[in-house]
Protein backbone atom coordinates (compact mmCIF):
# COMPACT_ATOMS: atom_id res chain seq x y z
CA UNK A 1 0.00 0.00 0.00
CA UNK A 2 2.85 2.34 0.92
CA UNK A 3 4.64 1.61 -2.37
CA UNK A 4 1.45 2.43 -4.31
CA UNK A 5 1.08 5.72 -2.48
CA UNK A 6 4.70 6.69 -3.22
CA UNK A 7 4.27 5.77 -6.89
CA UNK A 8 1.07 7.84 -7.11
CA UNK A 9 2.77 10.88 -5.56
CA UNK A 10 5.70 10.63 -7.96
CA UNK A 11 3.33 10.32 -10.92
CA UNK A 12 1.42 13.44 -9.84
CA UNK A 13 4.65 15.45 -9.44
CA UNK A 14 5.99 14.39 -12.85
CA UNK A 15 2.66 15.17 -14.54
CA UNK A 16 2.51 18.60 -12.92
CA UNK A 17 6.06 19.37 -14.07
CA UNK A 18 5.29 18.34 -17.65
CA UNK A 19 2.12 20.40 -17.74
CA UNK A 20 3.95 23.46 -16.43
CA UNK A 21 6.49 23.38 -19.25
CA UNK A 22 5.77 25.33 -22.45
CA UNK A 23 4.27 23.11 -25.12
CA UNK A 24 5.68 22.67 -28.59
CA UNK A 25 3.78 24.60 -31.23
CA UNK A 26 2.29 22.22 -33.79
CA UNK A 27 3.02 22.50 -37.47
CA UNK A 28 0.33 24.66 -39.06
CA UNK A 29 -1.40 23.90 -42.36
CA UNK A 30 0.49 25.79 -45.06
CA UNK A 31 -0.70 27.71 -48.11
CA UNK A 32 -1.52 25.22 -50.86
CA UNK A 33 -2.16 22.34 -48.46
CA UNK A 34 -5.47 20.59 -47.85
CA UNK A 35 -7.53 22.12 -45.05
CA UNK A 36 -7.53 19.66 -42.11
CA UNK A 37 -10.89 18.02 -41.47
CA UNK A 38 -12.61 17.98 -38.08
CA UNK A 39 -16.05 17.54 -36.54
CA UNK A 40 -17.23 19.80 -33.71
CA UNK A 41 -20.36 21.00 -31.97
CA UNK A 42 -21.42 24.56 -32.73
CA UNK A 43 -24.20 27.06 -32.16
CA UNK A 44 -25.61 25.80 -35.49
CA UNK A 45 -25.36 22.10 -34.58
CA UNK A 46 -22.69 19.53 -35.39
CA UNK A 47 -20.34 20.60 -38.19
CA UNK A 48 -17.79 18.64 -40.17
CA UNK A 49 -15.34 21.15 -41.60
CA UNK A 50 -14.70 21.80 -44.42
CA UNK A 51 -16.79 18.97 -45.91
CA UNK A 52 -20.18 20.39 -44.92
CA UNK A 53 -19.60 23.50 -47.04
CA UNK A 54 -19.05 21.70 -50.35
CA UNK A 55 -17.59 23.89 -53.08
CA UNK A 56 -18.02 27.14 -51.13
CA UNK A 57 -15.08 29.22 -49.99
CA UNK A 58 -14.59 29.11 -46.23
CA UNK A 59 -12.94 31.34 -43.64
CA UNK A 60 -12.03 29.88 -40.26
CA UNK A 61 -11.51 32.51 -37.55
CA UNK A 62 -10.11 31.75 -34.09
CA UNK A 63 -10.85 33.95 -31.07
CA UNK A 64 -9.04 34.13 -27.72
CA UNK A 65 -12.13 34.26 -25.50
CA UNK A 66 -15.88 34.88 -25.44
CA UNK A 67 -17.25 38.00 -23.76
CA UNK A 68 -14.11 40.07 -24.45
CA UNK A 69 -14.24 43.51 -26.10
CA UNK A 70 -12.05 42.94 -29.17
CA UNK A 71 -13.55 39.53 -29.99
CA UNK A 72 -17.05 40.93 -29.56
CA UNK A 73 -16.30 43.84 -31.90
CA UNK A 74 -15.03 41.43 -34.56
CA UNK A 75 -18.14 39.24 -34.42
CA UNK A 76 -20.38 42.31 -34.55
CA UNK A 77 -18.53 43.55 -37.65
CA UNK A 78 -18.71 40.10 -39.27
CA UNK A 79 -22.45 40.02 -38.60
CA UNK A 80 -22.78 43.30 -40.52
CA UNK A 81 -20.70 41.81 -43.39
CA UNK A 82 -22.58 38.50 -43.68
CA UNK A 83 -24.34 39.48 -46.90
CA UNK A 84 -21.04 40.63 -48.44
CA UNK A 85 -19.42 37.27 -47.76
CA UNK A 86 -22.50 35.34 -48.89
CA UNK A 87 -22.39 37.22 -52.21
CA UNK A 88 -18.78 36.08 -52.60
CA UNK A 89 -19.78 32.47 -51.93
CA UNK A 90 -17.92 32.47 -48.62
CA UNK A 91 -18.99 30.73 -45.41
CA UNK A 92 -17.71 31.97 -42.04
CA UNK A 93 -16.82 29.71 -39.12
CA UNK A 94 -15.76 30.94 -35.66
CA UNK A 95 -13.62 28.99 -33.22
CA UNK A 96 -12.56 29.46 -29.61
CA UNK A 97 -11.60 27.23 -26.69
CA UNK A 98 -14.68 28.25 -24.71
CA UNK A 99 -17.63 25.90 -24.28
CA UNK A 100 -20.75 25.64 -26.41
CA UNK A 101 -22.83 26.94 -23.50
CA UNK A 102 -20.67 30.09 -23.36
CA UNK A 103 -20.94 30.50 -27.13
CA UNK A 104 -24.75 30.38 -27.04
CA UNK A 105 -24.86 32.90 -24.22
CA UNK A 106 -22.38 35.24 -25.93
CA UNK A 107 -24.18 35.02 -29.27
CA UNK A 108 -27.52 35.78 -27.61
CA UNK A 109 -26.04 38.98 -26.18
CA UNK A 110 -24.39 40.06 -29.45
CA UNK A 111 -27.53 39.39 -31.50
CA UNK A 112 -29.32 42.23 -29.71
CA UNK A 113 -26.41 44.62 -29.22
CA UNK A 114 -26.41 47.99 -30.97
CA UNK A 115 -22.83 48.81 -32.01
CA UNK A 116 -21.53 51.93 -33.78
CA UNK A 117 -25.09 53.24 -33.93
CA UNK A 118 -26.15 50.40 -36.25
CA UNK A 119 -29.14 48.12 -35.88
CA UNK A 120 -28.26 44.67 -34.47
CA UNK A 121 -27.71 41.78 -36.90
CA UNK A 122 -28.42 38.19 -35.94
CA UNK A 123 -25.25 36.09 -36.22
CA UNK A 124 -25.92 33.34 -38.73
CA UNK A 125 -22.46 31.76 -38.83
CA UNK A 126 -21.54 29.01 -36.33
CA UNK A 127 -19.41 29.39 -33.20
CA UNK A 128 -17.51 26.15 -32.61
CA UNK A 129 -16.88 24.53 -29.23
CA UNK A 130 -13.16 23.71 -29.01
CA UNK A 131 -12.91 23.33 -25.26
CA UNK A 132 -10.67 20.29 -25.81
CA UNK A 133 -8.33 22.47 -27.95
CA UNK A 134 -8.15 19.72 -30.56
CA UNK A 135 -9.05 21.96 -33.50
CA UNK A 136 -6.87 24.79 -32.20
CA UNK A 137 -3.84 22.49 -32.24
CA UNK A 138 -4.85 21.07 -35.64
CA UNK A 139 -4.79 24.57 -37.18
CA UNK A 140 -1.95 26.00 -35.08
CA UNK A 141 -4.17 28.55 -33.35
CA UNK A 142 -2.50 27.99 -29.97
CA UNK A 143 0.86 29.74 -29.82
CA UNK A 144 2.36 28.35 -26.64
CA UNK A 145 4.85 31.18 -26.15
CA UNK A 146 1.77 33.34 -25.61
CA UNK A 147 -0.76 30.94 -24.09
CA UNK A 148 -1.46 27.21 -23.85
CA UNK A 149 -5.19 27.74 -23.33
CA UNK A 150 -6.27 30.74 -25.44
CA UNK A 151 -6.13 30.98 -29.21
CA UNK A 152 -4.48 33.86 -31.00
CA UNK A 153 -6.52 35.68 -33.66
CA UNK A 154 -6.02 33.25 -36.52
CA UNK A 155 -7.57 33.36 -39.99
CA UNK A 156 -7.55 30.64 -42.65
CA UNK A 157 -9.01 31.41 -46.07
CA UNK A 158 -9.89 28.13 -47.78
CA UNK A 159 -11.05 27.88 -51.37
CA UNK A 160 -13.77 25.85 -53.08
CA UNK A 161 -11.36 22.90 -53.46
CA UNK A 162 -10.61 22.93 -49.71
CA UNK A 163 -7.08 24.26 -50.24
CA UNK A 164 -5.56 26.76 -47.82
CA UNK A 165 -5.09 29.97 -49.79
CA UNK A 166 -4.18 32.59 -47.17
CA UNK A 167 -3.25 32.68 -43.47
CA UNK A 168 -3.27 35.57 -41.01
CA UNK A 169 -2.26 35.68 -37.34
CA UNK A 170 -2.95 38.69 -35.12
CA UNK A 171 -2.08 39.24 -31.45
CA UNK A 172 -4.93 39.30 -28.97
CA UNK A 173 -4.57 43.05 -28.40
CA UNK A 174 -5.22 43.97 -32.04
CA UNK A 175 -8.55 43.54 -33.80
CA UNK A 176 -8.47 42.18 -37.33
CA UNK A 177 -9.04 44.34 -40.40
CA UNK A 178 -12.04 42.46 -41.75
CA UNK A 179 -12.20 44.60 -44.89
CA UNK A 180 -8.66 43.42 -45.69
CA UNK A 181 -9.71 39.81 -45.24
CA UNK A 182 -12.63 40.37 -47.61
CA UNK A 183 -10.29 42.14 -50.06
CA UNK A 184 -7.97 39.12 -49.94
CA UNK A 185 -10.84 36.78 -50.84
CA UNK A 186 -11.83 39.01 -53.77
CA UNK A 187 -8.19 39.19 -54.93
CA UNK A 188 -7.81 35.40 -54.80
CA UNK A 189 -11.07 34.83 -56.66
CA UNK A 190 -10.08 37.44 -59.26
CA UNK A 191 -6.69 35.78 -59.67
CA UNK A 192 -8.30 32.36 -60.18
CA UNK A 193 -10.96 33.63 -62.58
CA UNK A 194 -8.80 35.95 -64.69
CA UNK A 195 -5.44 34.15 -64.35
CA UNK A 196 -3.82 37.35 -63.10
CA UNK A 197 -1.94 38.71 -60.08
CA UNK A 198 -2.90 41.70 -57.94
CA UNK A 199 -0.38 44.44 -57.05
CA UNK A 200 0.27 46.05 -53.68
CA UNK A 201 -2.73 47.88 -52.21
CA UNK A 202 -4.97 46.50 -54.96
CA UNK A 203 -8.68 47.18 -54.67
CA UNK A 204 -11.47 45.55 -56.70
CA UNK A 205 -11.61 47.19 -60.11
CA UNK A 206 -7.95 48.28 -60.11
CA UNK A 207 -5.56 47.14 -62.81
CA UNK A 208 -3.86 43.77 -62.34
CA UNK A 209 -0.65 42.06 -63.48
CA UNK A 210 -0.32 39.39 -66.17
CA UNK A 211 1.92 36.40 -65.57
CA UNK A 212 3.55 36.67 -69.01
CA UNK A 213 2.97 38.44 -72.33
CA UNK A 214 1.53 37.02 -75.54
CA UNK A 215 1.41 38.24 -79.13
CA UNK A 216 -1.47 40.67 -78.34
CA UNK A 217 0.05 42.19 -75.22
CA UNK A 218 0.25 45.96 -75.55
CA UNK A 219 -1.87 45.91 -78.74
CA UNK A 220 -5.31 44.96 -77.46
CA UNK A 221 -6.07 48.22 -75.67
CA UNK A 222 -6.34 46.36 -72.37
CA UNK A 223 -2.83 45.20 -71.51
CA UNK A 224 0.24 47.41 -71.27
CA UNK A 225 3.90 47.26 -70.28
CA UNK A 226 5.12 49.15 -67.22
CA UNK A 227 8.53 47.51 -67.58
CA UNK A 228 9.49 44.29 -69.41
CA UNK A 229 8.91 42.44 -66.14
CA UNK A 230 5.70 44.26 -65.09
CA UNK A 231 2.83 43.72 -67.51
CA UNK A 232 -0.50 45.19 -66.46
CA UNK A 233 -4.09 44.67 -67.55
CA UNK A 234 -6.97 47.10 -67.21
CA UNK A 235 -9.95 45.76 -65.28
CA UNK A 236 -12.32 48.67 -66.06
Say what the CATH topology of the largest domain is.
Answer: Glutaredoxin
Please mark out the parts with pLDDT under 50 across 5 or more consecutive residues, or reply none: 5-23
Overall pLDDT metric: 89
What oligomeric state do these chains adopt? single chain
The rounded distance between the terminal residues' Cα atoms is 83 Å
Level-1 CATH class name of the largest domain: Alpha Beta
Determine the fraction of residues in helical runs and give it as a percent range.
25-40%
Question: What keyword list fits this structure?
Answer:
11 strands; single chain; alpha+beta; 236 residues; four-stranded antiparallel beta sheet
Q: How would you describe this protein?
A:
By secondary structure, the protein is α+β, with helices and mostly antiparallel strands. The protein has 6 helices and 11 strands. It has helices spanning 2-20, 69-80, 82-87, 100-110, 134-138, 178-194, and strands at 38-42, 45-49, 57-62, 90-96, 127-129, 153-158, 164-170, 196-197, 208-210, 223-227, 230-233. The strands form 3 sheets. A 5-stranded mixed sheet has the order 5-4-3-6-7. The longest helix has 19 residues, at 2-20. Mean pLDDT is 89; it is low at 5-23.
